[in-house]
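input
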Amino acid sequence: MESFGQNNIWIIVLAMLWTIPWKGYALWTASKKSHKRWFIALIILNTFAILDIFYIFYIAKKTPKDFLKAIKTKI
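output
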């Protein structure tokens, strides 16, 4: 009997294609914002990109003041 990885290599490839871009962007953002603890947590924990997506959209997001400023410049 062959192992799971040999029979279902496409699942592993899809998981990598999903996880690597999220992980890279989250690590880059944490580094840019000097969030050392988040950087360490993101690099150690592999949560199928759930922690990475949470960090990107909730922790590293801009402040409401920055958001309003961006809207006013586009109007």
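quick obs: The helical segments are 4-7, 9-32, 36-44, 50-59, 64-74.
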